[in-house]
Amino acid sequence: MNTSLIRELRDMSGAGMMDCKKALEENGNDLKKASEWLREKGIAKAAKKADRIAAEGLSTIEVQGNKAVILEVNCETDFVAKNEKFQNFLKEVAITILNSNAKTNEEALALSCQAGTLNDYVTNMTATIGEKISFRRFTLLEKNDDENFGAYIHMGGKISVLSLVKGASSDVAKDVSMHAAAMRPEYVTKEQVPEEQLEHEKKILTEQAIAEGKPANIAEKMVMGRISKYYKEICLEEQDFVKDNSVTVGKYVSNNGGKIIDVIRYEVGEGMEKRQDNFAEEVAAQINGE
Question: What is the pTM of this model?
Fold first, then answer.
């Protein structure tokens, strides 16, 4: 098979490599006929959806031995996210990445799978389901034997948290993940807060104190107190533990002989532009076969 023809048909149609290969085989390597064949099968439609907004979807976690992956895949509507085919697709993508050493999205999408590559698989799912499907992000974690993962998936995958603790049990690690799911910490420790962000917050708090008519020396003390409160808002270890607010999360873990190594929290669609449905446009698109 002529690989340049496959590449050209991929560029024309947006279809996956394996679909392009089959289309050319079915149509005697005729690019025009192969392109029409893909359109008839609905596969080429995937390319038309590439610029549409996909901010719904699911996150998930897969753990095998000393390795774990957390990832997010997006679609356009919550209806599709609940589809069994989409959920099976999500699991297959997670397992494929878990069995790799991928470090970037580009490396992950180039991994081999049943559809050719994961990128081909995403394109094929877009064609099959009829909505834009996009692979957004992932994190691979590996642990030592004295460490434990804590996986927590909330609301069927709308929020997923993967924690890694040293010296404490997997139950403690899961408690940390459940807390992080509810409280949305930005950082694990105070030391992780960027200096620029901290100085910006101090400036705002200082101006607030002065606006309240406090003398400079009193304002300075007030700012330090409010910074401690600020740490409780954004740092996991400083937050009061949701299951027992008499201790912080950091203290809860240390009381159980452990230390938090890492926490990754994915909330589906966070920071993304949300789809704004226009019913008239949707109907027109369906009539025009888009």
Answer: 0.77
Nearest one of 32, 20, 211 to 117, comparing CA atoms: 20
| Residues 41, 258: Cα–Cα separation, whole Å | 55
C-alpha to C-alpha distance for 147 and 163, rounded to whole angstroms: 10
- Domains present along the chain, CATH in parentheses: 3-48 (1.10.8.10), 54-125+135-142 (3.30.479.20)
Residue 112, C-beta contacts closer than 8 angstroms, at least 6 positions apart: none
C-alpha to C-alpha distance for 88 and 189, rounded to whole angstroms = 36
Distance (Å, whole) CA 250 – CA 242: 12
Which of 76, 165, 182 has its CA nearest to residue 129?
Answer: 76
Render pLDDT for 168-217 as a digit per residue (tens, 0 to 9). Answer: 999 999 999 999 999 999 999 999 999 999 999 998 888 888 888 888 88
* Residues 151/171, Cβ–Cβ less than 8 Å: no
